[in-house]
């Protein structure tokens, strides 16, 4: 009974306290008696709604970021000038606290900065900047990246402008045509190259320009010389590559030290072979008893057979020199096409080429000696 009486008393106390708490919740939150109140019991506070909106300061809405919206003309090559229209360029350059000037702007092609070519002219009021597609020492690498691996006469790229040592502005110009290969010059180059190759092949077939200086049977031609072929191969390859690189990049200083070494190896091999061949012949004015035996006439067995064969058949030392010449020639052509520059071979690779040439000359010394000559010596 005592426990029941205690529970009833607690329940009655809660019923008595609840209206008082409810009334305090309704009036305590009412700011009517305080600053900013409405004076209406139970009404919501209006402090946030009555606060004034913040003042609009200078931001992207008032001063938008620059953006490239056009380029004139829409197609250009090295040596041409283009005018880039930049929206929002004036506010950026003419602002009182701006530290950016026209001289700080640089051209971006395919997101690649072109340093060393400041604007030729600039009009902040019109939002236009004029650039010249000029190749300088600072922009040489950038132009190599843009022009390398030409698979067509033009390459579609993005054009933008930016502040020096900063990212480029957003751009709407994404279909600008950069001329990689000039059509008239390229077709002229191909025509001259084709005519030159045809003439050289005719000379090689009908004259001794690529043949050993040895007598041949009547109605026959002497065999082809590997050393002379190597010299002609590198000479024609370097000339063709030099003209091609100049045609695309307008650069003249493109011959590397490796190319000079290759030309030197070819020239040295041809000269050494000629001296060895001349030493096998009888010297002028010598007595018949001391004269060397006459050189056996040799006839050509075909271009490839002559280059890799000797008196005993297919020769390993000739095949080695011929194979390495072709391998380095393929690498040379690939480097010229991919990077528009002549390759810089390693010292080890050039040493291997020189070793092959030296081996060829060493084995060439006993060639053509008759048994009589050997017994006499």
Topology:
Layout: H1 2-28, H2 47-50, E1 67-72, E2 75-76, E3 81-87, H3 89-94, E4 105-109, E5 112-114, E6 121-123, E7 128-132, H4 140-147, E8 154-157, E9 159-163, E10 176-179, H5 183-206, H6 226-249, H7 257-279, H8 303-308, E11 309-310, E12 313-314, H9 316-339, H10 347-364, H11 371-376
Parallel strand pairs: 2-10
Antiparallel strand pairs: 1-3, 3-7, 4-5, 4-9, 6-7, 8-10, 11-12
Helix pairs in contact: 5-6, 6-7, 6-9, 7-10, 9-10
Structural summary, described in words:
With 377 residues, the protein is α+β, with helices and mostly antiparallel strands. The protein is 45% helix and 13% strand. α6 (226-249) packs parallel to α9 (316-339).
Q: What is the compact description of this entry?
A:
With 377 residues, this protein is of the alpha+beta class. Helix content is 45%, strand content 13%.
Shape: elongated
Number of strands: 12
Distance between the termini: 147 Å
Q: How many domains make up the coordinates?
A: 2
Poorly predicted sequence stretches spanning 5 or more consecutive residues: 1-8, 10-62, 370-377
Query: Gyration radius, to the nearest Å?
Result: 43 Å
- Estimated helix fraction: 40-55%
| Spatial strand arrangement across the major sheet | 1-3-7-6
Q: Please report which band the strand proportion falls in: under 5%, 5-15%, 15-25%, 25-35%, 35-45% or over 45%.
A: 5-15%
H/E element order: HHEEEHEEEEHEEEHHHHEEHHH
How would you classify the helix and strand content by structural class?
Answer: alpha+beta
Number of helices: 11
Report the biggest beta sheet as strand number plus sense, adding barrel if it closes: 4 strands, antiparallel
The residue-averaged pLDDT reads 77
């Amino acid at each position: 009974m005592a426990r029941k009486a205690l529970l009833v008393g607690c329940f009655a106390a809660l019923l008595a306290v609840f209206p008082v708490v409810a009334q305090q919740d309704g009036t305590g939150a009412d700011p009517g008696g305080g600053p900013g109140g409405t004076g209406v019991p139970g009404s919501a506070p209006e402090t946030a709604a009555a606060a004034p909106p913040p003042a609009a300061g200078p931001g992207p809405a008032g001063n938008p970021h620059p953006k490239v919206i056009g380029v004139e003309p829409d197609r250009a090559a090295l040596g041409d000038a283009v005018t880039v229209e930049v929206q929002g360029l004036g506010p950026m350059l003419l602002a009182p606290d701006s530290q950016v000037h026209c001289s700080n702007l640089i051209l971006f092609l395919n997101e690649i900065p072109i340093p060393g070519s400041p604007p030729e002219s600039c009009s902040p009021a019109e939002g236009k900047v004029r650039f010249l597609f000029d190749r300088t020492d600072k922009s040489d690498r950038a132009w190599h990246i843009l022009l390398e691996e030409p698979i067509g006469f033009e390459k579609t790229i993005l054009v933008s402008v930016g502040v020096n040592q900063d990212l480029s502005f957003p751009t709407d110009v994404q279909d600008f045509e950069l001329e990689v290969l000039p059509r008239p010059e390229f077709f002229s180059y191909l025509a001259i190259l084709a005519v030159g190759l045809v003439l050289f092949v005719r000379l090689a077939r009908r004259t001794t320009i690529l043949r050993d200086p040895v007598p041949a049977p009547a109605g026959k031609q002497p065999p082809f010389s590997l050393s002379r072929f190597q010299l002609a191969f590198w000479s024609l390859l370097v000339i063709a590559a030099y003209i091609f690189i100049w045609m695309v990049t307008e650069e003249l200083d493109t011959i590397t030290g490796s190319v000079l070494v290759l030309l030197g190896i070819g020239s040295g091999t041809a000269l050494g072979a000629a001296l060895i061949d001349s030493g096998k012949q009888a010297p002028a004015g010598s007595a018949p008893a001391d004269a060397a035996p006459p050189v056996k006439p040799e006839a050509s067995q075909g271009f490839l057979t002559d280059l890799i064969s000797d008196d005993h058949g297919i020769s390993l030392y000739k095949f080695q020199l011929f194979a390495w010449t072709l391998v380095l020639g393929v690498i040379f052509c690939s480097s010229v096409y991919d990077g528009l520059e002549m390759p810089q071979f390693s010292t080890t690779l050039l040493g291997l080429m020189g070793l092959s040439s030296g081996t060829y000359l060493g084995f060439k010394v006993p060639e053509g000696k008759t048994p009589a000559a050997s017994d006499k010596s």
